[in-house]
Amino acid sequence: MVTHYLFPLRTKFFYTCMFCCLFSLFMIASLLFHAPADILIQQSPVSSSLLSGEYLVTAFAVAGIGSALCCYLLARYFSRRLSLVQRAIQQLASGKLDIDLEIDGSDELSLLASQINQLACRLSNERENMLLSVIESLINALEAKDTYTYSHSSEVADIALHIGQALHLPDDQLFQINFAAILHDIGKIGIPTPILNKPEPLTDEEWDMIKQHPVIGARIIAGIPFLSHVSDIILHHHARWDGTGYPSSLAGTDIPLGSRIIAVADSYQAMTSTRPYRESISHQEAIRQLTRNAATQFDPDIIAIFIKLYANKYGSPA
Ligand SMILES: [Fe+2]
């Protein structure tokens, strides 16, 4: 986020002019009334000889230099603020919308800064809405292609969100996990449909193709600026706690937290729903399997939280 500081120009201009005037008066009065003692003793400070003498010339010269310095500083101040606004407009023109000009006051430059902020915000919202529409279309396309993905992603997102809330994660992290859970299998759009819907066990070659879906999904999402962290979560949602997952060998807490949460939610949802190659199992049996695989496949802390959450809903496994 780019932050520029702007101050009310009229106020600054007024105070600078006041300072210049006071500075000039001070310098003149200072040189007139603090002239060498012998002159002060011998002559009145406002006598014609002093007013027309070298002291008055010096006083005006010093006051002039002081005023010129103040004007230079004021001009530099305006120039710097204007260049900040110009840079913000250039950023807008180049498509970088993370602009936040800080506004202090109600002068013309502050108004311009406020309008730039509003424009950046509106363009950013429009771009996000457009990207979300594209993502929604991708999800619809995937659901049409893979019948078993239907409602799977939204249920995984629901479970993952509950786990994240139980972990007291901040809102921005919950947002990322929710998005990643909805999109975690989006990469399956790049896998041939007959393989996705094959009722028989997959061959090794077919499994290798399926294992590419986190990479494909991460690539699709990586191009969306405000979902860059979501891309990383998607990439590792099939990582295992012991490091034997795919596509990389990340293990333990090196695996993004969102990926570890989605791994549990995804497995639970998959086990408790019917797939082409097997029937669903009960909640209690799914919990037993998750518990058996804690510390090998899943993060044991997340399994403990999940069991606690769902024990309240369905009761503890027998
Ligand atoms: Fe997956």
From TrEMBL:
Keyword Transport (UniProt): no
Transmembrane segments: 12-35, 55-75
SMART domains for the chain: HAMP, HDc
GO terms (BP aspect): signal transduction
Residue ranges of domain HAMP in the record: 76-128
Residues covered by the HD-GYP domain: 127-318
CDD domains tied to this protein: HAMP, HDc
GO cellular component annotations of the record: membrane
InterPro entries: HAMP_dom, HD/PDEase_dom, HD_GYP_dom, HDIG_dom
Keywords for this protein: Membrane, Transmembrane, Transmembrane helix
Protein name (Swiss-Prot/TrEMBL): HDIG domain-containing protein
Organism of derivation: Propionispora vibrioides
